[in-house]
Amino acid sequence: MKKLFTLAAAVLASMAMSADVIFSYTLTAAGEEGATYDAVGGTAKCLKPMGSGGSNEITIGTQTFYKFNSSSAWDFTLADAATFAEGDVVSITAACGTSAKSGKGVTLNGIALTGDFPASEANTLVYTVQAGDAIDGQTTIQVKRIDSDIKFGTISVERENVAPSTDPVESAEISGEAACMVGGSLELTCNAPKATSYQWSMNGAEIEGATAKKYTFAPAAAGEYSFTCAASNEYNLSPVVAAAHVVSVVDPADACGLLIKAVLNGGTSATMSGVIGGTFDTNLGSGKYKLDKGKYIGIQLAAGTFMAGDEVTITMSTAGQNYPCLFADKDRNNLLFLATETSDTLEYVITLPAEATGLTTLYLSRDGDDATYKWNPTVSSISVSRSCEASSNADIAKVTVNGFEVEESAGNKFEYTLSANYAEPTVSIALTLAHPKAHIKYDLSNPYEMTTPSAGTTSGQAFIIVAEDGTEKTYTVLVTKSATLSNNWFLSELSIDGYTLDPAFTPENNSYTITKPYGAANPEESAIHATTQDPNATIDHITINPTNILIMVVAEDGVAQNGYLIEIEEAAAKKDLLEATFSNGVHGYIAEGNINVPYLEGEEEPTFVSARFWNADGEPTAEMVEGNLVVTGIDAQQASYTITYVPLTPMETSYDEITFSEVPSYIYSVYGFDAGKGVKFSKDVEEASNHRISEGKNNGESPIKKTAASNAAIEIGLSQEHANFVAIESNGNSGDAGFIKLQLSEDIPTGINNAQEAVKTVKVIRNGQLFIEKNGVLYNAQGARL
Length: 786
Hints:
Layout: H1 2-17, E1 19-26, E2 36-39, E3 42-48, E4 57-60, E5 63-67, E6 73-78, E7 89-95, E8 101-108, E9 111-117, E10 123-128, E11 140-145, E12 151-160, E13 173-175, E14 179-181, E15 186-191, E16 197-202, E17 205-206, E18 214-217, E19 223-232, E20 240-241, E21 245-250, E22 257-266, E23 269-273, E24 278-282, E25 296-301, E26 311-317, E27 325-327, E28 335-338, E29 347-351, E30 361-365, E31 378-386, E32 396-401, E33 404-405, E34 408-409, E35 413-418, E36 426-433, E37 439-440, E38 448-451, E39 458-466, E40 472-481, E41 491-496, E42 511-516, E43 528-532, E44 538-544, E45 548-554, E46 561-570, E47 577-582, E48 589-591, E49 594-600, E50 608-613, E51 621-625, E52 628-632, E53 638-648, E54 658-659, E55 670-674, E56 678-681, E57 693-694, E58 738-739, E59 741-742, E60 761-766, E61 769-774, E62 777-780
Parallel strand pairs: 14-21, 35-40, 42-46, 49-53
Antiparallel strand pairs: 1-12, 2-3, 3-6, 4-5, 5-12, 6-11, 7-10, 7-12, 8-9, 8-11, 13-15, 15-18, 16-17, 16-19, 19-20, 19-21, 22-23, 22-31, 24-25, 25-30, 26-29, 26-31, 27-28, 27-30, 32-33, 32-36, 34-35, 36-38, 37-39, 39-40, 41-43, 44-45, 45-46, 47-50, 48-49, 51-52, 52-53, 54-59, 55-56, 57-58, ...
């Protein structure tokens, strides 16, 4: 008996170590799209065919391997809806062609399978299925390429052949999230090696129909839920029960902290986070972040709704007029928030109003070109947070009496005076609370209708504001009916769109000046904003004359009156000199009424040729008058520039390298204009770490154009027959290029006098001046025929 037992044990050991092929398929052709083929243990389906013929296939021994195209893919499915399981060994036999490759391969349900591929040899890549990975529990393995060189031949899957009664399921555990929201869902997985059957229980009761490895839990109510999983195979005498896995379910209405956050990855996608989380919705173009006209960015909660008091934070970069607009839908039908002022910050925080309660989606958008809705920043993220503590904010943001806003006085009091002529029986008091979850105690109506006091008396109404956490504050609104009519004619506010009053407005000062651009029309009445200090005073009329604006204010008593006079001055016509060009092809350096003009020492001083202007009004003129350049605008006003000729000594021939340092190197060209600073000029020398001649770009008029990429050198051919004037110039309007060093090199085949274009134009320097010779006709550097 002892010998027989030993033999039986050996047989069982042998069985435990053997394995069965549960699936196998070898390609015999590239496959036809959508076709299904028989395989050992299941089927093979060609989703997208392989490449074949020529370099697309390779034969090694008796087996041919076919190349994956960029979209090629195969599905390999087990028969009878069987599933792959932990411990299964997947083998892929592939090749890479005539050259050796490494680190390339295929993906199995997205799992990368890589290895080395010797030249013209097949290699087998092996993967062992892990618990809970992308293959475990699936009926199908999908194979795709990693790189364009891989050629595929055979897939096979082996499973360990266990001996009866020796390998039952011994343990099980549950994995998955431990928290969830009502209305959301989470997936739990029973990890039990070798299990073939499962039964889930919740709070001690079996869940009907929950007999798969995975269970999706979608809670309908808040609370704690305890799950167990009974796992077994045919060799178990009883199920192996996993330890309890507890899931805490929270009602979204009770969630707090960061509810949802979308960090934009590009125009069409975002990384979502938050205790509730959700989805991202946008019609921005791919890779775009900017909210142009008709575009939107939306976030939707995965469970629950937004509530009044939630804070929306937008992170953005500014661009133009930044008016954050928050809507309840993508069609912009329900405006929840509209900023009244632009924001120059990179973060905008919005408190949701009461109208937002119950919404699941919020949208950022803009509508049309009207300034009210014109918002076009580049958005990087949008998030919504909810305070984890009840707000103690019981403040009043605004009080209006009969529609007129009343300022708060000492002791939480708001005082308002009615006209002696006021005849209505009631006064309307409206409160705007600072926090949307605060309320007015005793259910007082809002607006509240208070009985009008009699002439010369004051009536008051107390309002108790209750914060979300129960904090209370008492405010009193006092309304006095005057016994006499007011003689107050002062304005409390005066402004004109697009203009600045000089001096700044004060109620007591009734004389101002504005300056309009040359040729502009006077402001229209709709652009003038005036508010009286006394709400019973009136703006009698606004008169816009050719040289001034008169605003006449009449006090309540109809007797006291006065006017505010705004003088209108017209700015001089713009005639900012951008560039002055001279006969030797240079552009003078314009600064503080002077133009420095360089020329080669020993030659004649160059003469003025032409001028250009920056955004001038009309067409200014420029001419030399008694040695000065005089610019005349279309308003006949003039500006005079002194011409200073600067002789430049030709450098001696040397092949030594010249490095620009702290010694100023003059650049004779304007490079820009700023409305506040006027004309800008090229800088002399950069910081020590980047010495260079600034503004090295060509201005577009010189005969030979040379530019260089960053940290690159350029070569300019010079003639040996003439003196050379090499100008490093700005392009006139923009550009910040420059040179760090200058060096003469040995003779090169062509010089500047031989440079030619397609039109057979020859460019030469004669006596230090640049000329263009075209078809035998001579032109100067500006293209004027000589």
